[in-house]
Amino acid sequence: MKNRTRTNWLAMVLIALGTVFILFPLYMAVTIALKNQNDMLNSIFGLPTNLRFENFARAIEMTNFFQALRNSAIVTVSTVVLTILTNSLVAYAIARNMNKHKFFKGLYFYFISAMFIPFPIIMLPIVKLTASLGMTNLLGLIILHTVYGLAFNVFIYVGYIRSIPIDLEEAATVDGTGTFGTFVRIIFPLMAPINATVGILICLSTYNDFLLPLVIISKQSQYTLPLVQYVFQGQFNTEFNLAFASYLLAMLPMIIVYLFAQKWIINGVTQGAVK
Amino acid sequence: MAKWSRLLGAACLLGVLLTLTACGSGQSADGKVHIEFFQNKPEAKASFDRLVAKFNEENPNIVVTQTNPPDAETVLMTRVVKEDVPDVIGMGATDTYSVLGKSGIFADLTGEPVLDGINPRYMQMLTDLTGQEAINGIPYAANADGIMYNRDIFDKLNLEVPKTWDELMDTAKKIQDAGITPFYLTYKDDWTSNLLFNALAPNIAGIDFLLQRRDDQVSFQDDVMREVAEKTLAVLPYGTNDNFGRTYADGNRAFANGEAAMYIQGTWAIPEIRKANADINLGFFATPTGDDAESNNLVSGVDTLLAVSESTPHREEALKFIGFLLEEENISQYIEEQTAFSAVEGIDQDDPALTELQPYFESGRLVDFADHYIPAAVQLNSLVQEFLQRGDVDAFLKRLDSEWDKVANRRS
Amino acid sequence: MAKRKAAFYWMTVPALLLFFVFHTFPALQGVFYSFTNWNGFAKTYDLVGFKNYYYLFQDDNVGNAYWFTFKFAIVVTIVINVLSLLIAMGLNASIKARNFFRGVYFLPNILSVLIVGYIFNYLFSNVFTVWGQNLGIESLSTNLLGSQGLAWLGVAFVAIWQGIALNTILYLSGLQTIPTQLYEASGLDGANKWQEFWKITFPLIAPFFTINMVLAMKNALMVFDLIVALTNGGPGRATQSISHLIYTGGFEGGEFAYQSANSVIYFIVIAVISIVQIRYLQRRETDM
């Protein structure tokens, strides 16, 4: 018994050493972003002699950071909101009918099987399709993210909804509440935990996505943050400090959110995968 | 009640969709003509930015925006697949240009007044490339692929600019013996791996050889190509200890800081090098490829040509922008900042770093890049990069033939 | 009741239509294009039957991309799972500041793969090489990513650095479901740590093992962003993944139809692997 409660120092030391491995690249990124060219020549590893916040100012100006941030924010927030509103509704209809009707059961497997289709397979045709529909913009990106999310989200939503007792809804139906009304007033509020999970997963994947915006978005003024980093690689050229300042800026919004909502995010992601 | 909540739900969704549409398709409601200028040179982004700003100021009804993505040719192809071709395109005279020209993506500019004063030799280069009579592109600036050298190091070691291949190897040897790195090789990037090959092949094998290869009259396994391959390989011992780990950006910085005596690059890299060290005393010579200095040509291609999309609704404004770029004052500014050569006649490049190249331009001893005549799908850059690592001449030449045939088969 | 049923259809049919239009339809289009010679932008094209497939199977660039992708995916999947299980066990031991450490280990998962790739690209060329030279290790003193034979290990290293995050957290949540009493019981029987792991821990977290294997494998097989940031498929084509080949080939030099055929083959391969993997791992779970 005593054994279990005492701190396991060996594990603790190994775990602490491991965090060095995780944090080192980020430490390097921060120090390089704050150095000037001379500091870089003297020592790559050391701390900067005087903090150079100009690197950040220049990176913001050069990459039009706030525009990219705005684009990323629009796409991420809209996708999360739209996904939670629509995908949960679809999953609700499926979950409540899949045992009774072949159509809904078929729909369930149709969506789920799409999880096995890697994106590159639809990449070439989807570029043609979105172009012909005039969707090579942020709106197109939001719609595609929302639609593609169905495959995985229906899977986890259905699992969750089926664990909600059906009695509540039956009572509401007896009261004369319509199906949509039942969903909006009874089921949706009960889905808060799983909505959080889906929201977090979609938020992370949409914010960090690179391939879909790369092939879909045409106008440089609509580029998202990862795309901007890609675009400016050539222009940073010899100025690594500027490049790293720009990388940090692009990662910063998500890191700040993570600092405040760490526990929540980890729980959300865990639930999503385990479900 | 039921109806209400349903309506509410629908209204919510509609609301979200509407706001999205609004932020998606907004803009361009300012009554101005918007022209997208897509160009492929990251080095030239700032120069074009300045010219674009000047143009926009002079033309309050037109707004030109510059797009300059990395891997620009792939991105351009994506745009073409989307049928969303940028209004004005600035690109090199490459195989991609040729393919797009043949497919009717670019407008025919025959007879347009902006063509006046363009050097006919460069015009000819473009028509040779596409094999068509239509004028799809206007040459803007030319470059040169050769060898950059640090004049201070050469002076210190009492070295002359090499005129033949053997002299080049001899010079490299002397530099190495003096404890200095002869060549800063940046072969982590595939396109820089190809620069030496690009300079050797047109001189040793000739552009005609590549044209004949199109008709299957010759093979890459012929002796002339073997010589090209062997010479491409011969500089490796004179590089750094990490030839394959260094990139273009590393090379520019290192050469600027005097870490090597020579640097196999194009004239387009000079502005980047000066950005890292404004005081560098550099020179540039044509790659000596054989024994006869007199018959050696400088590899020079159309670095930037300007094309107009066939499908643009703003052809007139697009041509106005091109006309502006070709104005003497503007093109002079561009070629000075970019250390490029003007395609407009009568505008000289008098950068002191390029004095050794003047005779070639004056006497017209110029030859185009090899890879402009090799299908892009062959991915010559990757093949050369792999060859440099493996060092197997036979396998490389065989591979060139088989890749070429594969692409030809697919295209037929 | 009929009204209720109608409402359920209203909830799903629009989604079904959208999904069909933007997912299934393009997939079918891709299959169609694979039988043509279209370059993606020409006004006309012809049907060419199985010609693209015929050339596909002779193309060593395609074979090379499959070889790299699988070699990479297998190594990354195995290493990620071993390391993250070890870290999860460490985090599950009685240590101080567990939540802090958990937070740090999960951090890479929230970062953009592309940007992580760019940061490591710099570290590989300017930091690891300096260490290699100082320590006198020959293979480290040059940029690993520039080596024809070893570059894939560099890409795998970064994929592992980032991939550990998610799997560690999942294993940890699995370990936390195991009641401590079970260990105390085995402790009385005189079982050592090794036996304890294989007899108690592993069978109980087997479902997590399944999920982690599938997730890690799926991510690794789709690798694209990392390739773009680290090597762009090079040196030569040594680290060109299937996704990267489809992207670069599909849009470059008129291989649209040809790479569509490649996509179809890729889909079949992925589908078969997914089914086999899930079947096999689920059977193991029930066996234990």
TrEMBL record, chain A:
Task: Report TM segments.
Answer: 9-34, 73-95, 107-126, 138-161, 182-207, 240-261
Check the record and name the InterPro entries matching this protein.
Answer: BP-dep_ABC_trans_perm, MetI-like, MetI-like_sf
Which controlled-vocabulary keywords does the entry list?
Answer: Cell membrane, Membrane, Transmembrane, Transmembrane helix, Transport
Compartments (UniProt record): Cell membrane
Residues forming the ABC transmembrane type-1 domain are 69-261
Q: Which Pfam families does this UniProt record tie to the protein?
A: BPD_transp_1 (PF00528)
Q: How does it sit in the membrane?
A: Multi-pass membrane protein
Protein's UniProt keywords contain Ribonucleoprotein: no
Q: Which family does it belong to?
A: Belongs to the binding-protein-dependent transport system permease family.
What this protein is called in its record is Carbohydrate ABC transporter permease
Q: Which species does this protein come from? A: Saccharibacillus alkalitolerans
From TrEMBL, chain B:
Superkingdom, natural source:
Bacteria
- Record PROSITE patterns: PROKAR_LIPOPROTEIN
Q: Does the keyword Signal apply?
A: yes
Q: Which UniProt keywords apply?
A: Cell membrane, Lipoprotein, Membrane, Palmitate, Signal
Q: Which InterPro entries match?
A: Bact_solute-bd_prot1, SBP
Provide an example Pfam family for this protein. Answer: SBP_bac_1
Signal peptide feature range:
1-22
- Record has Transmembrane helix as a keyword: no
Which PANTHER family does the protein's record reference? Answer: ARABINOSE-BINDING PROTEIN-RELATED, POLYGALACTURONAN_RHAMNOGALACTURONAN-BINDING PROTEIN YTCQ
Name this polypeptide is given: Extracellular solute-binding protein
TrEMBL record, chain C:
**Record keyword Cell membrane present:** yes
The record's section on Gene3D superfamilies has:
MetI-like
Give the main location: membrane
Question: InterPro entries attached here?
Answer: ABC_transporter_permease (IPR051393), MetI-like (IPR000515), MetI-like_sf (IPR035906)
Reading the lineage from the top rank, the first entry is Bacteria
Report the CDD domains cross-referenced here: TM_PBP2
Topology within the bilayer: Multi-pass membrane protein
PROSITE patterns (UniProt xref): ABC_TM1 (PS50928)
Residues in ABC transmembrane type-1 domain copies? 66-277
The protein's location, in the record's own words, is: Cell membrane
* Pfam families linked: BPD_transp_1 (PF00528)
User: Which residues span the membrane?
Assistant: 7-28, 65-91, 103-124, 150-172, 197-217, 264-281
* Annotated keywords: Cell membrane, Membrane, Transmembrane, Transmembrane helix, Transport
Q: Which family does it belong to?
A: Belongs to the binding-protein-dependent transport system permease family.
This protein is called: Sugar ABC transporter permease
